C-alpha cells in the first residue's frame, strides 16, 4: 500500500481513537468505521477490536459474538487471501501506533492480545498462516505470544490454539521438530505433539515414544478423542519395522538392529498399555516370536495381546527353556507363589514405564505359567 494511503489511515485511526473516548464506541463506529472505505484503516480497527474486546469482557461466548460483529475484514477468507501482505504490514503499523498512543505505564503486549483475539475468529488459521508467510522472521515471536495466551483461554479456544500452531507448521514445515521438542519440554498440547509426530516426524516414532514414556508421560496421556487414528498409524509403522527384523536363529540381526527391535517393542508396549491400542493375533504372534528368538536383553519384555492358549504355552515354554534370560523363570516363580505385585513391579522396572497392568490379564498369565510348569 502506498505511503499516502498509510498516512491517511494513520490519521483517521488516531481521530477515531480520540472520538471513541469522547462520544462512545457505538457513535464512533458509526461515524468512522461504517462509512470508511480505506482498507488500511479498517485493518487497524480490526486489530484494535481483537485486542480490546477479550481484555474487557470475561464471558467467552460474549467475546466471540462481540468480535465477530465488530470485525470488518479479518473474518473474510477472500480478503485475507487477496491482501495478505497488507494484513501483515498493517499489524506492524498497528503495534507502532499503539506504542505511540498508549502511555508507557498502561502498555500491554499488543501482538499477544491481538493474536488471542484472532482465536475467536473462524479465519484464525488463515490469519496466522498469512502472518507467518509475510513475517517469517517473527515465527518464534508469534509462537511465544500464542503460547502465553493458554492460561487465559477458555477450553474451546485452547483447542483452537492447537489448530493455529499446526497451521504455522504447515506454512513452515522445517520448524516441526523444533516446535514439537519445545512443546514436549513444556509438557503442553499433547494432541498437537502427536499430530506433529504423525504428519511431520514420521521417521522417529521409536525414539520419540521411548523418550516420552521414559520421563513423566502423564501430560502426554491427555489426548483428544480424535487421537486414535494417529496411534493406529504409529502402530502400523512399528509393526512394519518389526516385520522386517530377522525372526529365526539362522537369520540373527546385528547388534544395532536388535537394539532397535528392543526399542520398537518397548514403544509398542507403551501404546498398548497407556492408550489401549489393540494388537491383532498375527501382530501378537510376530512380537512373541521375536521375543523367543531375540537377544537376552529383550526376553523379558511383555507384549500384551490375544493368543491361542496352546500356542502361548509353547512359546512361554520355549522362552524358559532357551536359557537366554532368567526373567521368564522369575515370572514363573512369582506366579507360582502368588506374588502378583512383584510381577507388576518387574514389568514396570524393565520397561521403565509406570504402565497400568490389568489384573485380569495377570491372572490369566498366572494360569498359563502354572500349566507351563507341568511341561518343564
UniProtKB/TrEMBL annotation:
Please provide, in alphabetical order, the Gene Ontology terms of the cellular component aspect for this entry. integrator complex
**GO BP, one example?**
snRNA 3'-end processing
Which protein are we looking at? Uncharacterized protein
- Which species is the source of this protein? Absidia glauca (Pin mould)
Gene expressing this chain: ABSGL_00516.1 scaffold 832
